[in-house]
Amino acid sequence: MADRKKLVLVGNGMAGVRAIEHLIKLAPDAYSITIFGAEPYPNYNRIMLSSVLAGGTDMKDIIINDWDWYADNHIQLHAGHTVTKIDTKRKKVYSQQGVEADYDVLVMATGSNPFMLPLPGANKEGVIGFRDIRDTEIMQETSQKYKKAAVIGGGLLGLEAARGLLNLGMDVHVVHINGILMNRELDEPAARMLQRELEAQGMKFLLSKQSASITGRRRVKALQFADGSEVEADLIVMAVGIRPNVELAKASGIEVGRGIIVDDFMRTNIPDVYAVGECAEHRGIAYGLVAPLYEQGAVLAKLLAGVESEGYQGSVTSTKLKVSGVDVFSAGQFNEGPGTRALRIQDDVAGTYKKIVIKNGKLVGAVLFGDTTDGAELFSIMKKGESIEGKEKELLLGFSPAGGGTSSAADRLAAMPDDEIVCGCNGVSKGAIADAVQNKGCNTMASLKGCTKASASCGGCKPQVEGLLKLYAGDAAGVPVKEGICGCTEHSRDEIVAAIKEMRLMTVKEVMNVLGWKNEGGCTKCRPSLNYYLGMLWPGEYEDQKESRFTNERYHANIQKDGTYSVVPRVYGGVTTPSDLIKIATVAEKYEVPMVKFTGGQRLDLLGVKKEDLPKIWEELDMPSGHAYGKTLRTVKTCVGNTFCRFGTQDSIAMGIRMEKAYERMTAPAKVKLAVSGCPRNCAEATIKDLGIVAIDGAWELHVGGNGGIHVRATELLCTVKTEDEVMEWSSAYLQYYRENATWNERTAQWIERVGLDHVKKALEKREDRLALVERLEKTLSYTTDPWKEIIENKELRKNFEQLSAPQPAQG
């Protein structure tokens, strides 16, 4: 690592991180990489924000590279850090939060900012742009209290914002200074067709309106226009364009125009400083579409990896989008001008429109509405610059421009060049789709989308992706291949566990090699599962592979979205002492912990802890880890039982403490939560836990398979026993049987639903079988140690916590 060059990327967006992805593939050991991102999130697909706003997609679904991707590729990510200064002479960058980083190579990928109209009143509450996750959250929050919204801007972003606000139940007016919608992408006939379609969906339009001022006291009340009219609004969203974010570059002596000026290899005027993405200006153009930005990133990656390339020659752009469920496509010079001829066909009944623009015998522009199937072919002809003289009508009607006969969609897809971009949102080429289908077994749309991300964003390319899937997979298209634990293998969980047992496989790498993993290094889904299965089968022989664990488990703390950590010490059964409370309070004050919170599991959570403070806090607390971060026993919740409560029938506190001390370091396929209630009134909520114990007169009920999370599931009664020792015997046997038979990441609720309670009862009905399971669990637990204490006492392990900032958290 010492001889690697230091690369710093300023900007954690789509263009910059795509360049890093390419670079890692081309030269995995050449650079030590540090990324600064102003938002407290991993790299996500900004194009999909409108889908999140509309409620069709969850935030987690638009993450391109999750937190573990950075850790797996040894990338130091400073999320939530805004770079405020670059010293190009000393080759240093400085963040607003006080972090410094040296660089040999600096890549500027600062993106763009939403253009906010400088209207009187624009600073009022309720006036926002639409550019990032926070804007999306504000719109969602606003819709809960207010009902009237105005969106300034009739382009794609404005229409998508309006669609989302409609879905949130708001009354929406779209205000546009032009007389037609999407005037940069559509001609008038197509724009009018789009307007009619969106009006039918409930959108209202105020076209040819110039915004003049925003009224209201503290919060916006109305938007006034230059003609004296106004529209009431509790929320105003400005979606009128973007501006390259060049302020940092300009202040650092880097040459800027509209954007950061770069040459064909993305070099700025400062040595070793490069720029890509929406912030870059190449040959006088700053691009705002994804495909050109990805092309720039690929060129830069090749340059930094020492791979020859022709450089970036600029992009002929096309726009293929799904606007509020309507497919539109445009490319090139789609409005007629001097020396051009246009052919068009319009079907108002079917809701389709097609127009091609020709100049000097060549196709120079096209607009499609409703049916965009021919978009890729038209764009390919346009880029090639080939003559279409004599074949214009055939092309307009969907006929092949060469060869004279009709051409099916399959023929057109087959003739498409391999480097043709099919999915513009995610930069996926025809060749990448072919490779996924032919070499990686992706023969369904779901698997193809998961492998390549093709059609995973706006969905406008879905017909072409489906066509290519059928072209390459033939009769196998849509037939699911054997389902493996992830895309790296076709082997199921049971096959993998059986092979590990039979062949006594002892390492993650050995399992992958012997079982023929498609992806040599595995992925963030299979590596942790293999690590668990090996540890479960060979507890005394297998050495835990820390790099195969999720980031939270590597650092033994839950990592928060701002890059800080939380510390949850073990509080057995929810019972603490004054001395422990004093220790927690003292430590919290000493290390300026921003928040101390009672958890739902009757513990105290110290939130906002810096990574470098973790070992010191653990040492001064002198308490065991509460394992609040891993796939382990989390907590055993208790009520006061018959110790204090007049309704209590058994000592639930003592039972809960006994169970928590017995299982406190138990790993499992997923997190495990327990509870003990002292009577059927169930104050400890035992009947929505993975394992819940409920006291009744003279006995204990064992309930299993509950969940209080997103999908609430009540427990099922496993058995009723008379003594505390029997509770422990049955509980240990049940937990070990779950450990040995559940799929990785499968909670007990899903496991019980899958295998059935009767199956579990039968497996545990013989005492000798239960005792064998208990013995295996106790053997496993005998090898465990408290991770906090281990790190405190081991200088080498402690070194991992000395860096200024942490790898970021795994989601989910």
UniProtKB/TrEMBL annotation:
Pathway: Nitrogen metabolism; nitrate reduction (assimilation). The keyword RNA-binding does not apply. Its cofactor is FAD; [4Fe-4S] cluster; siroheme; [2Fe-2S] cluster. Transmembrane segments: none annotated. Residues 630-768 form the Nitrite/sulphite reductase 4Fe-4S domain. The keyword GTP-binding does not apply. It comes from the Bacteria. Coiled coil: none annotated. Residues 318-385 form the NADH-rubredoxin oxidoreductase C-terminal domain. It holds the Pfam family NIR_SIR. Residues 6-282 form the FAD/NAD(P)-binding domain. Residues 421-470, 485-534 form the BFD-like [2Fe-2S]-binding domain. Keywords: 2Fe-2S, 4Fe-4S, FAD, Flavoprotein, Heme, Iron, Iron-sulfur, Metal-binding, Nitrate assimilation, Oxidoreductase. Gene3D superfamilies: 3.30.390.30, BFD-like [2Fe-2S]-binding domain, FAD/NAD(P)-binding domain, Sulfite Reductase Hemoprotein, domain 1, Sulfite Reductase Hemoprotein,Domain 2. PROSITE patterns: NIR_SIR. Residues 560-622 form the Nitrite/Sulfite reductase ferredoxin-like domain. InterPro entries: BFD-like_2Fe2S-bd_dom (IPR007419), BFD-like_2Fe2S-bd_dom_sf (IPR041854), FAD/NAD-bd_sf (IPR036188), FAD/NAD-binding_dom (IPR023753), FAD/NAD-linked_Rdtase_dimer_sf (IPR016156), NasD-like (IPR052034), NiRdtase/SiRdtase_haem-b_fer (IPR005117), Nit/Sulf_reduc_fer-like_dom_sf (IPR036136). PANTHER family: NITRITE REDUCTASE (NADH) LARGE SUBUNIT (PTHR43809). Belongs to the nitrite and sulfite reductase 4Fe-4S domain family. This is Nitrite reductase [NAD(P)H]. It comes from Paenibacillus glycanilyticus. The gene is nasD.
